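tool_call: predict_structure(chain=1)
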Amino acid sequence: MTDHTQAIPIVRRDPGTLRIGVAVGIPEPWATALHDARARVGDPAADLIAPHITLLGPTTVREDELPAVHEHLARVAASQGPFVVHLRGTASFRPVSPVVFVQVAEGIAACEALEGRIRTGVLAQELRFHYHPHVTIAHDVPDPALDQAFAELADFDARFPVTDIQVYEHGDDGRWRVLAAHPLAPGDQPVRDAGEPADS
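tool_result:
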């Protein structure tokens, strides 16, 4: 059985490159609740990256490409107005992948639109799996731990506005840290998914 209390791995990367990701950050108090749930099941990633909704998975870029990457992300962010995310309940990618997550019940369309636009130009790439916005709460831990995460957050419910997207850098110590944030287009009120009832 894998030892999930192992030391944080050292991440090796080629000189002159860095590994980035783009996400919607989860605000407090829900970020702490999600982090603590992930830590309770022994997932070492709980202390490596804050709870988030991935928009671009780990991607290696050259350091000299970073200005162009930020310009691209700023344009993408400016093309999307603020929107509401509603997280509700749990689901799993099992048996395809040993992952349990909190579901995105509202804000899916906006996340999908951002993800599609991010993955163009300097960040163009193909996906191994169809994009499905979610917040991971257990990954690659034993089945009992996955079951625990699934049950503990089955009643999780949070709704919050999204006003920016965050760029993370994967450090050599294995931790993901916020490198920058790009604001979404100005707007008085966060917009809801088309056809989404106000009390969903």
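agent: Helices lie at 30-40, 66-78, 108-118, 143-152. Proceeding to next step.
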